[in-house]
């Protein structure tokens, strides 16, 4: 998967199209990523009590995973943030390095 944890991405399709956020978690087996502030859903959690006696539960808003094909990596070019695809190259020592296709710079 070409999108990693910590990358800045932009949603390119769906209800949150155009929103940008940081990848919180990547799920490579499911081809999904969890993006900060994107695909927010409401979860109903069971009411309970903590050890101190305060109430917990109710309706909680949280992010849900989004498919990796619906996001594009964002890089900076001449002070502007642009979306790009990701490619790879190998350095002299044989290490694999991610490269922004649009700008040609290492990520």
Automatic annotation (TrEMBL):
How does this polypeptide assemble, per the annotation? Part of the 50S ribosomal subunit.
Q: Does the keyword Calcium apply?
A: no
Signal sequence annotation: none
The terms describing its cellular component in GO are:
ribonucleoprotein complex; ribosome
Kindly state which keywords UniProt assigns to this record, in alphabetical order.
Answer: Ribonucleoprotein, Ribosomal protein, RNA-binding, rRNA-binding
Fetch the HAMAP family from UniProt.
Answer: Ribosomal_uL24_B
The answer, when asked if Ribosomal protein is one of the entry's keywords, is yes
Name the family: Belongs to the universal ribosomal protein uL24 family.
Q: What is this protein called?
A: Large ribosomal subunit protein uL24
Protein source organism: Streptomyces calidiresistens
Q: Which CDD domains match?
A: KOW_RPL26 (cd06089)
For biological process, the GO terms are: translation
- Fetch the InterPro entries from UniProt: KOW, Rib_uL2_dom2, Ribosomal_uL24, Ribosomal_uL24_C, Ribosomal_uL24_CS, Ribosomal_uL24_KOW, Translation_prot_SH3-like_sf
**What is the stated purpose of this protein?**
One of two assembly initiator proteins, it binds directly to the 5'-end of the 23S rRNA, where it nucleates assembly of the 50S subunit.
Annotated GO molecular function terms are:
rRNA binding; structural constituent of ribosome
- Domain called KOW: residue spans: 2-29
């Amino acid at each position: 998967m070409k999108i990693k944890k910590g990358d800045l991405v932009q949603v390119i399709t769906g209800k949150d199209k155009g929103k940008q956020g940081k990848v919180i978690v990547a799920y490579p087996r499911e081809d999904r990523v969890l993006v900060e502030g994107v695909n927010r859903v409401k979860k109903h959690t069971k009411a309970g009590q903590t050890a101190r006696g305060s109430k917990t539960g109710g309706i909680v808003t949280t992010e849900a995973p989004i498919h990796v094909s619906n996001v594009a990596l964002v890089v900076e070019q001449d002070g502007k943030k642009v979306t790009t695809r990701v490619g790879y190259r190998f350095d002299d020592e044989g290490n694999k390095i991610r490269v922004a296709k649009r700008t040609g710079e290492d990520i």
